[in-house]
Amino acid sequence: MDDGTSLTPREQIRHEQDRWNAVVHHVLPEGAELVSVSCFVTDSRVYRGNNKAAKIRRLEGSHPDTELRREVASLQALSRNASYATWGEWEYSVQDEMPGTRFSNYLFDQQDTAFGVRARLRVLRNLLPELKELHRHGVSHGDLNPENLLIERDKVTLIDFDRATRGSRLHVVLRDWIGVGKGLQRRTPVWKLALFVLVPKSKSLARRVRWRLVKARTAGRPVSGATDVGALRNAWDLAESSSANSRGQGVAYYAWSYRAQHYSGERAWQLRWEPISKTVDFAGKSVLELGCNMGLLSTFATVAGARDALGVDHDSTIIDSARKVAAALDVPARFEQVDLTDESDWESRLGGHDIVTALSVVHWLPNRDRVLKFLSQHQELIYEGHDRLDVEIDRLNALGFDLVDVVMTTERDRQLLHARQSSAPRN
């Protein structure tokens, strides 16, 4: 298998996407949509299509991952339709798609103030029938964290059985409720789930617990001789130390895998970039990224053919991180420290681009009208807001964007929109 050491960073990024496209087409030939990318391990994604969900992982050497095999065996024991196979350098499982929203989406969304203690208690109570059925079949889930609970009204469904084990009724009950048993590592039983779901400031605690799980996972073996790997590690270290995301918790905003190395973060970058890249044509265009954080959108837009990209953010440390990412990938994207709440005339300096992006930016600003007016002066916009879809579309229409398409629903159940003006933008 080609490890990609002879490829330039841009070639490596395109090469990886071609490999993923090939295996996805093999597993789910029609209508596959990327729905999940692991923030924990290298090269593990979930796609859905035709009412099926496929978990695809790159093989470590020539040995299939026993976790994925064990997951399928556990699902089959529960009479769920699931299968396992390998294809070249990949292994994958396919099962029926399960409806619902991840419990973590409610806990980690700081805007969801309605999801209080009673709602969380209701979720824990509704988990009990699922656990009882699991244990009746002699299966222990072993990883009862909010990422692995799907909520559909009053029904709770467990997913991600890669740490599941089979055993006697007593064994599986003790493992899931108390966390005892031989050979267990990083176990997450019911009492831990309840602890960081119910204690005061549980959103913050849950975020910290999840981040510890992220950092505890083993990264892939880095490609020897690839200097960009080490440079990217430095960039991620800067992002973790910045105040641009999850202040004081050491969390980078994005997770990404590159050359068999995993850079951990709170959100999987590929999950955001793939639908954007399939919807927006960056070729030959100039891009401005407001609230750029690590600058991955500017960097990847340049790889996708943008003639120029400028990212701005108020945090100086995250700007340094963005510059290091672009330099490591040999991309000429530029980054500047700009505070959108500043009274200076930043509009004149930043105007004139073909595409402007504002992903979860406007909501946090005290003077939204000023930034919205600036957005309206551009022909094309990539936008993520916090309000209902109809409210956001009305807002964009009022700014002159008469063509608005939904690109994706984010991990926070918000809509990422691609908006365009069919006539000349307003001055």
Q: For the largest beta sheet, what order do the strands appear in spatially?
A: 16-15-14-17-18-20-19
Q: Which segments are poorly predicted (pLDDT under 50) over 5 or more consecutive residues?
A: 200-206, 209-225
Q: Mean pLDDT, as a whole number?
A: 86
SS element count, helices: 14
Q: What is the global morphology?
A: globular
User: In angstroms, what separates the terminal alpha carbons?
Assistant: 54 Å
Helix fraction bin: 25-40%
In total, the number of strands is: 20
Rg for CA atoms: 22 Å
Structural class: alpha/beta
Q: Main β-sheet, in a few words?
A: 7 strands, mixed
The portion of residues forming beta strands comes to: 15-25%
